[in-house]
Design brief:
There is one protein chain. This protein is an all-alpha fold and about 500 residues long. About 65% of the residues lie in helices and about 5% in strands. It contains 20 helices and three strands. It is globular. The protein has two domains: about 140 residues, no CATH class; about 325 residues, Neurolysin, domain 3 (Orthogonal Bundle). Its EC number is 3.4.17.19. Belongs to the peptidase M32 family. It catalyses: Release of a C-terminal amino acid with broad specificity, except for -Pro.
Length: about 500
């Protein structure tokens, strides 16, 4: 075998083991008995130790030195493997194992603290996670910026300074648009009781409408909706509130965007570094365009209104009011339930706080107060309880520092892709009004999803849209949509 063939055979086994590790995380969130947490922490630590040993295997360096890429895809494979190998060799094996064990345990502690609205019971283990993540970041940074080193795991070739500049440019327009919308009386939410079984049945239908292949996936329930896996085993979760069916339905559409990205990557890349989404920003662009530009559009809401009447019976609003309910700008605390205008402000808050945590400018003991103060300054009202504030997101409990800014970056990418999609599919609105997503999702598959990790994130969006990504399409879309919903 050539050096390239030997390397790819070795890498295939590593990728398969990483999928097994991911399945452990999925099971922990959906089906694992509560009393199994400590054992699962040991299992997660053990498999991460095996993965770290493989990723730092000295033979990888030898193979890379001697491998000749057979084509463009092969060159991209080598580029990813080299990057991952260099990063892995900077992190001590015992640190990687300790992080896996700790974050598995921390996740359960977070869930209990959230249920009890008790940040103090979570703070000690969060402090431990933060300490280990700083150590990991310092090892990866090799004298550079620690936060940038952590961000590289989620959005390669992007720096915190670049994201901060983007956010600074977006913030005034978002704040102004929010103020104009909030000058109107707050729109009422959809009223009534919506059975859990009916919601889950409709969410399954929506998943298939948006192209999710349930023969290679499944839908379960979790505290925090997520997508897991790649290739022929991609699973999603949603959650149900009988008073708020949109929580279930739009969480499902959002996670289907992630899942379809993974399912639609070219099968020739399965169990290789190219067989997964290239970055979390690009990943989020798929979930956000599915959920918002497509799923919350006026024509699609026309179709969904009819399906909800079929599922739940007569509702307390007409079709136009229904569209306004789906898109209502409202006071709230929860990021995942935020409207499109305010969502990015939630992300900016988290981005600034986690940078401060990594830098040591904010301590865990002061985090709840820092969150509450920043939230009141940004949104104009006080956080009422920790589960609506610092405890609402799972990310920090599992060590995902550097992840949050990719949500807003994904919104920017989604704005660019939507602009290009409208030009590519002139009949888009008519198709959405019929609940027909086939041409839209086929374009996204052909333009973005099929390539997996073949191209760098910005290059991929540039190629799909015909121009470099920027915030202007997103901001224009938001101004037009919410300006019509809340006219001056």
């Amino acid at each position: 075998m050539s050096a390239y063939a030997e390397l790819m055979a070795f890498q295939r086994q590593t990728e398969a083991l990483a999928q097994v590790a991911g399945r452990l995380g999925w099971d922990q969130e959906t089906m694992m008995p509560r009393g199994s947490a400590e054992q699962r922490a040991e299992e997660s630590g053990a498999i991460q130790a095996v993965l770290h040993a493989r990723r730092t295997d000295p033979r990888i360096g030898d193979w890379l030195e001697n491998a000749e890429a057979p084509n463009e895809a092969g060159a991209a494979q080598l580029r990813h493997i080299k990057r991952d190998h260099e990063r892995a060799t900077r992190v001590p094996g015992d640190l990687a194992e300790a992080l896996a064990r700790l974050t598995s345990r921390s996740q359960g502690i977070w869930a209990e603290a959230r249920a009890k609205d008790d940040f103090t019971s979570f703070a000690p283990v969060l402090d431990e996670v933060l300490t280990l993540k700083r150590q990991e970041g310092q090892a990866l940074a090799d004298g550079g910026d620690v936060y940038d080193a952590l961000l590289e795991d989620y959005e390669p070739e992007t720096t915190a300074a670049e994201i901060a500049a983007l956010f600074d440019a977006m913030r005034p327009g978002l704040v102004d648009l929010r103020a104009r919308c909030l000058a109107h009386p707050e729109r009422p939410a959809l009223g009534g009781a919506f059975g859990a079984a009916e919601q889950l049945k409709l969410s399954r239908e929506l998943a298939e409408v948006f192209g999710y292949d349930l023969s290679r996936g499944r839908i379960d329930q979790a505290v925090h909706p997520f997508s897991s896996g790649s290739g022929d085993d991609v699973r999603i979760t949603t959650r149900v509130s009988e008073a708020d069916p949109f929580n279930c339905l739009y969480s499902t559409i959002h996670e289907v965007g992630h899942a379809c990205y993974e399912q639609n990557i070219g099968p020739q890349y399965a169990l290789t570094p190219l067989g997964r989404g290239v970055s979390m920003g690009v990943h989020e662009s798929q979930s956000r365009i599915y959920e918002n530009q497509l799923g919350r559009s006026r024509p699609f809401c026309h179709w969904l209104y009819g399906r909800m009447r079929d599922a739940f019976g007569p509702m307390n609003v007409g079709e136009d009011e229904f569209y306004a309910c789906v898109n209502r700008l409202h006071r709230g605390y929860i990021r995942t339930e935020a409207d499109e205008v305010q969502y990015n402000l939630h992300i900016m808050l988290r981005f600034d706080l986690e940078r401060a945590l990594i830098a040591g400018d904010v301590q865990v003991s002061d985090l709840e107060a820092a969150w509450n103060d920043r939230f009141e300054a940004d949104f104009g009202y006080k956080v009422d309880r920790p589960s609506n504030g610092v405890l609402q997101d799972v990310h920090w409990s599992v060590g995902l520092f550097g992840y949050f800014p990719t949500y807003a970056l994904g919104n920017v990418y989604a704005g660019c892709l939507h602009e290009a999609l409208q030009a590519a599919v002139p009949e888009l609105e008519a198709q959405l009004g019929q609940g027909d997503l086939r041409e839209a999702t086929t374009w996204l598959k052909a333009s973005v999803q099929q390539f997996g990790g073949l191209y760098a994130p910005r290059d991929l969006i540039t190629q799909a849209c015909g121009k470099a990504p920027g915030a202007a399409p997103l901001m224009g879309y938001l101004d037009a949509k919410f300006g019509a919903l809340y006219p001056e």
